[in-house]
Amino acid sequence: MSDRPSVDLSGLVKAYDIRGTVPDQLDEDLARLFGAAFVQTTGAEAIVTGHDMRPSSPGLARAFAEGAAGRGADVTEIGLCSTDGLYFASGMLQRPGAMFTASHNPAQYNGIKMCRAGAAPVGQETGLREIRALVEGWSAGLELPATDHAPGSVTQRDMLGDYVAHLMGLVDVSAVRPLKIVVDAGNGMGALTTPAVFRDLPVEVVPMYFELDGTFPNHEANPLDPKNIVDLQRRVRETGADLGLAFDGDADRCFVVDERGEAVSPSAVTALIAARLLTEHPGSTIIHNLITSKTVPDVIREHGGTPVRTRVGHSYIKAEMARTGALFGGEHSAHYYFRDFWFADSGMLAALHVIAALGGQRGPLSELVDQYKRYAASGEINSVVRDQQHTLTQVRETFASRDGAVTDGLDGLTISAAEWWLNLRPSNTEPLLRLNVEAPDTETVARLRDEVLAIVRD
């Protein structure tokens, strides 16, 4: 029984994971309850856990393991790992898993990403709501239900070598020519996985910020923010490297920089990987969220595949991939999902595909990805909006009939014409509307962007 006061977990339990500040929102007592609730909800007899390099992660992960073992589950701790390393362990061992990380969030944050056996996601609709309810009840001092099971064991296992072998079996790198690659690990888990995965490749790695340090002394481990890849861009140019790679804190996302130090959009990376995989598996389904460039479905169709459009968010992508048996999926946020990786996302597997594509021909990366840069885009623009629905209605009424446009409400409001599209969608957690615009040229993008923002920010 917990003797802590009842807690409101609404600020801690998100749509797809648990994430908050330590220790005021998440501490070891609470992690222990989450471990017990995870086992009760999944009915697991055995689970696997892993954690990132944040100072609070080992203690939180061990407390979770204690709570899980107390409910009768045997716990395998794989220790320091990337999030896709945890997904690998869940898939290979066919056990539910829990990864302790706050991904790209600042150092004072931590959290738990949970999955069922085979790396199947746990979100609000797939167990997270029940887990929250149990923890809230137990934190009020309620007795944990009695269990007939004896306490489970807690053991350790190193699975990094197995993870590397699995990834290398999914991408043919036999034709890769010698390359120089700058890798910015951002003091995160890419510093652990990169040397192991790249060890037998014909590449020279120029390491940046490879010291595991969850206080992030150099920059935030969030390469989606352009300011956090400035160091990488500079080093690529200074060293004459063939490409640069940047990983976020838990290394489940990978960002790419070409030999000129220019960022390659995640949509271009999605299109490149889709084209490669469709050559090997013609006729397959490829998933993309509705914020990726129109280039992505164009390329999928050109290579004989079937594009399927989804909402933003990994739980939606993974569910649609499982439903359709999709070969691959990509998001604008640089999450890349693979059927042969239990439909889970892996930044390192995406990086290997980029390396194989570049290293298998003689031209530079900029030339290789030029064919996937067909449109101009605004990037995501956030605006604070008090009445989101009223604003969405105003934008719909203004643009819906322009240029023969059609609208849909898959995720917020999308308005699509022959030559352009825009999406305006609410944040799940903040009073924000997020705008994305794409068109054939920057002038059209700027005009549409400014017209929408004049309504949104009025």
UniProtKB/TrEMBL annotation:
Residues covered by the Alpha-D-phosphohexomutase C-terminal domain: 380-453
Organism annotation: Streptomyces gibsoniae
Any Pfam family hit: PGM_PMM_II
Domain Alpha-D-phosphohexomutase alpha/beta/alpha span(s) in chain numbering: 13-136, 162-261, 268-375
Domain of life: Bacteria
NCBIfam families: PRK09542.1
InterPro entries listed in its UniProt record: A-D-PHexomutase_a/b/a-I, A-D-PHexomutase_a/b/a-I/II/III, A-D-PHexomutase_a/b/a-II, A-D-PHexomutase_a/b/a-III, A-D-PHexomutase_C, A-D-PHexomutase_C_sf, Alpha-D-phosphohexomutase_SF
Gene3D superfamilies: Alpha-D-Glucose-1,6-Bisphosphate, subunit A, domain 3 (3.40.120.10), Alpha-D-phosphohexomutase, C-terminal domain (3.30.310.50)
Family: Belongs to the phosphohexose mutase family.
Cofactor(s) needed for function: Mg(2+)
Protein name: Phosphomannomutase/phosphoglucomutase
Alphabetical UniProt keywords: Isomerase, Magnesium, Metal-binding, Phosphoprotein
Transcription found in the keyword field: no
